[in-house]
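quick one: adenosine-5'-diphosphate bound model?
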Amino acid sequence: MGHLIEFQSVYKIYQMGDSLVHALDGVSFSVDPGEFVAIVGQSGSGKSTAMNIIGCLDVPTSGKYFLGGVDVSTMEDDQQAEIRNKMLGFIFQQYNLIPKLNVLENVELPLLYAGVPERERRERALRALDRVGLADKFKNRPNQLSGGQQQRVSIARALAGDPSVILADEPTGALDSRTSREVLSFLKQLNREGDTVVLITHDNSIAVRAQRIIRLQDGNIIYDGDAHAPEAVVQPSLVDVEDEEAEEWK
Ligand SMILES: Nc1ncnc2c1ncn2[C@@H]1O[C@H](COP(=O)(O)OP(=O)(O)O)[C@@H](O)[C@H]1O
Ligand SMILES: [Mg+2]
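yep, here:
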């Protein structure tokens, strides 16, 4: 099977007054089915820009993006929306659950928008809730659940669409460290069960739970490899390399 995600020299350039910001500065990588990848980097490194392009919420200024072998880098909005619904399951820091709907209705909602018939909707939503261990809570309102449980509902909502890629943007940003570990273990479990997971985070201690780390700095990839290699978590140096001390490293 080919790559599930493929960036070919992707640039995203913003005009800021007189200057140009290279949010992504010629980024190439690919993700294969079954991988668990963390895209990591400090604030401003280009993570959200990459996430928006991977998620078909934005297109590159130049370069190509293939999702499931299809070139989505030049698609119109409505085509993007279609492939987004078919291929991607989103998990956000804010769970974006609707307070007035119960857990089951929340999980069903994207399927409703996708035009899935009622009965199938219900079955798929219940199966997804079962995978996250919350089938018995299907009648509860979101505010009757803990933060960790609410995040699991949002994971079920992503799973119900049977996505090819689960795209999680700072999914533990609003959770305490214990609940974060639970959500992370949970994403790992989904990956063991065959799901492809792309996790966006600024936090090294989260990123190392993935198999592979892609580290961004100023719109460039400065590391792409094993999440458990020592180099994977080395923070980019802020020391000016022109500095004479740098000479001693050569
Ligand atoms: N819409 C925009 N207009 C101008 N500059 C932007 C825009 N979006 C992002 N940027 C700039 O692009 C760079 C990368 O931003 P972003 O992808 O949000 O990084 P991260 O998510 O890693 O914090 C930053 O310098 C940011 O200021
Ligand atoms: Mg961001």
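The first strand starts at residue 5 and ends at 16.
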